[in-house]
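agent> Task received from the user: take the single chain below, predict its 3D structure, and emit structure tokens. No templates, no multimer pairing.
agent> Plan: (1) validate residues, (2) run structure prediction, (3) serialize to tokens, (4) report one or two observations.
agent> Step 1 OK, no nonstandard residues flagged.
tool_call: predict_structure(input=
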Amino acid sequence: MTLPQSTRVEFDLPEYSVRRRYQDFDWLRNKLEESQPTHLIPPLPEKFVVKGVVDRFSEEFVETRRKALDKFLKRITDHPVLSFNEHVNVFLTAKDLNAYKKQGIALLTRVGESVKHVTGGYKLRSRPLEFAAIGDYLDTFALKLGTIDRIAQRIIKEEIEYLVELREYGPVYSTWSALEGELAEPLEGVSACIGNCSTALEELTDDITEEFLPVLREYILYSDSMKSVLKKRDQVQAEYEAKLEAVALRKEDRPKVPADVEKCQDRVECFNADLKADMERWQSSKRHDFRQLLVGLADKNIQYYEKCLMAWESVIPLLQEKQETK
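)
tool_result: status=success, residues=326
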């Protein structure tokens, strides 16, 4: 795929054309999580978007996956910090990415190394109110989207079953028309009408499967990613609180705050600032994406019902003509 890139001095070309597999994107995300622990790393699309409904080998699924991976990469390259990460540079420019994977290049930041080695021995007393509010919001947000996702998948399954029935239902009128004289034309009209309704329903189902559900799943995973960063922040804060307590106990012996405590405090402040900035950026992106998503969903449903209405209205004149000739 062609990977777009902004015109920055560290890149030689405005865009790069390199071949990347799903596991390459997974490698990039893992490296970003390691080297940028204080930032929200966008989620990768799941390998199976709609289990039991979408064929993962179909062209539609491949195209849906491609769009989702493009979106993932765009979120990375648009980020004011992540876009400068050396792993992103390697991902976009390396002709042979496997060579870098085998090398296991160590690009962990000091903050990343510190967070990686934080043990579970520290227990946070309580989150600051603003971060507790973020945690509560993420829990509720993921719950609501999960419910919508499950219902939407049931609706799609029922629509597909209904579509199968429609495709069997329409031809019956056509074969019946061969036995009739005066009713032949109206019956053929009904058969064609049901065929048009079937096509419209198939298009609606495809749109929901390929456009609506992936966005829901992305933001459910996005909330999980944000919760992960929030937990890392809690771990660092708990470590900082434990170190402060230890210093307080031996205050007489060590009147000055040790350097490791100050470094831990810096990490907490770094987490707080980065998490709040990323949360604000995420909220802005969410508002934009869901506004587009819901408008598109409304338009697709309107188009579906308009097509069905036109199909059935086309049958009425045929029936009225037969009444007038009697």
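agent> Step 4: summary for the user.
The chain has two domains: 1-114, 118-326.
agent> Done.
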